[in-house]
Amino acid sequence: MKKKTNTKISYDSDADVLSMESAGNTVIDHAEEMGNLVVHFSKKNRPVLVEILEASRLFKDQPKSLRTTIRETFVAA
């Protein structure tokens, strides 16, 4: 049976960054930037934290109903 991992999702409106972080005490070893995406990895090369920079640009052309759903889901988390 696969172990369920909780993920913390947050949005910083001042920095316009959407973050998704795996729960636990995993130490970040290094990060790789790919355009507006920054992925932080553990020593075992597993993703620990994913940051979407300029996140509002990613969702700006989506229908208002999707933006509202995303806001309610991610900001409330």
From TrEMBL:
It holds the Pfam family DUF2283. This is DUF2283 domain-containing protein. The lineage of its organism: Bacteria, Candidatus Kaiseribacteriota.
